[in-house]
Amino acid sequence: MKIIIIYDNTSLKADLKADWGFSALIEAHGRKILFDTGANGRILLENMSALNINPKDITDIFISHFHFDHIGGLSHFLNENNNIVLHSPPSFRGVRYAREVHYYNKPQKIYKNIYTSGELAEIEQSMAFETEKGLMIITGCSHPPMKKILGRFSQFGTVFGIAGGFHDFEKFKLFNGMKLISPMHCTKNLSNIRLLYPEQFISGGAGQVIEF
Question: What pTM did the predictor assign?
Answer without folding.
Answer: 0.98
